[in-house]
Amino acid sequence: MAEGRGPSRRALLGGAGVVVGAAALAGGGFAAGRATASPVQLRQYDFHGEHQSGIVTPAQDRMHFAAFDVTTGSRDELIALLRSWTQGAAVLMTGTELGDGAAGGSPLAPPDDTGDATGLPASGLTITFGFGPSLFSKDGEDRFGIADRQPSQLADLPHFAGDTLEDRLTGGDLCIQACADDPQVAMHAIRNLSRLAFGVASVRWAQLGFGRTSSTTRDQTTPRNLMGFKDGTRNLRAEDTDNVARWLWADAADGQEWMAGGTYLVARKLRILAEVWDRASLSEQEATVGRAKGSGAPLSGGNEFTDPDYGRPGADGTPLIPTDSHIALAHPEANGGAMMLRRGYNYTDGADDLGRLDAGLFFLAYVRDPETQYIPMQNAISSKDAMTVEYVRAVGSAMFAVPPGIAAGATLGGDDGAYVGQGLFG
Ligand SMILES: C=CC1=C(C)c2cc3[nH]c(cc4nc(cc5[nH]c(cc1n2)c(C)c5CCC(=O)O)C(CCC(=O)O)=C4C)c(C)c3C=C
Ligand SMILES: [Fe+2]
């Protein structure tokens, strides 16, 4: 997935899925966009690649995520949607308007593009597609003739201690993760891809994220989560190629050939009980996480990137990093060496009925095998981690198979072009 610099959006993808290349900014005054575009906003990623974009891509600062219910029973319509999403995503990632654009089409028809990102640069937009367990079979029904191709790794997550999941925030047949360095660009992508799904799939739930809570490459600074702590210090990163190959990308030998080069996504909406957290003392907060709030250093000493020493005792003989702290329970050595690529976002939905902050962490993690890399860790965290037990409530949950990318040079769209998840239907 190559990075480049691109133009701001012009029209490219026809409503019927045909590349037309017509500029849609005629008429002037419509291409204002942001007054100035930063180098980050000019960043542009290639849609093509061995793996889908938006996974090891340097985590952007904004996210719009949507889960969809497929409303058709037709396999052909589902495939047509995946074709049109593929082609649409490739166009959107170049910072280009869809079809004849927002103002270039017939005055008698709705515009091909909603226009809310017209004039904005690509802003590092990545679009990542996933398939939920219910796409393969639902209530025992093989909906689209693909039940025998469901990977064993893709299953509904079990109930974890303390989960207070809401059905309206849980599950989904399909998902799209749109990440960008401009929130309007991420939102525009989800909005327009949802439009392309009209009559075939509808949004089940969606989430906006406004600040990354991870670093996925070495050159990124560590951001902070809504507990005020540095988050993402120790993460699987693009440069750790051996670990990425071992813990991230699925292989044909894992069971389903069509998933080779893909991965699995766990999405959890984790509300933080901010008012309770904000009343905890600094030392209690640090003991809960296992790291210093200011520097992010482990409580065993050193700086942010010093390896934590979980056995190192303090003056009273107990470990400086409490055994029920978050990092003591989440670090790989406590979990059979298992690693994951975290790619979550801070979120807020405003306030609840009692005036409390309705906010938290939209946890996204990519793993090769959820059964061994995610579920045991979540079980430990849900039952023993002081942070999760006292200050976090899971309100939404979903899992998706994320198919591989589409090889460089492959033609997209039309009846013969490549599309995301094609191997599943071949
Ligand atoms: C099941 C996996 C995890 C969930 C759920 C989770 C929730 C969660 N985490 C924080 C804040 C922090 N997490 C940190 C580290 C960390 N967390 C997980 C896994 C889950 N977190 C892992 C694997 C790690 C890395 C452990 C290690 O290798 O040491 C940290 C410390 C900084 C860092 O290394 O990133 C913080 C802070 C919140 C607020 C949260 C749910 C709301
Ligand atoms: Fe964590």
From TrEMBL:
Listed cofactors: heme b
A cellular component annotation (GO) from this entry: cytosol
Domain Dyp-type peroxidase C-terminal: 222-405
Principal subcellular localisation of the protein: other
Co-factor: note: Binds 1 heme b (iron(II)-protoporphyrin IX) group non-covalently per subunit.
Top-rank taxon: Bacteria
Enzyme Commission number, as recorded: 1.11.1.-
Domain Dyp-type peroxidase N-terminal: 52-210
PANTHER family listed in its UniProt record: DEFERROCHELATASE, DEFERROCHELATASE/PEROXIDASE
NCBIfam families: Dyp_perox_fam, tat_substr_1
Function: Involved in the recovery of exogenous heme iron. Extracts iron from heme while preserving the protoporphyrin ring intact.
Record keywords, A-Z: Heme, Iron, Lyase, Metal-binding, Oxidoreductase, Peroxidase, Signal
Region (Disordered): 101-120
Molecular-function annotations in GO: ferrochelatase activity; heme binding; metal ion binding; peroxidase activity
Signal sequence, start to end: none
Protein name (database record): Deferrochelatase
Catalytic activity, reaction form: heme b + 2 H(+) = protoporphyrin IX + Fe(2+)
GO BP of this protein: iron import into cell
Group of enzyme by EC: oxidoreductase
Similarity comment: family membership: Belongs to the DyP-type peroxidase family.
Compartment(s) where it occurs, according to its Swiss-Prot or TrEMBL record: Cell envelope
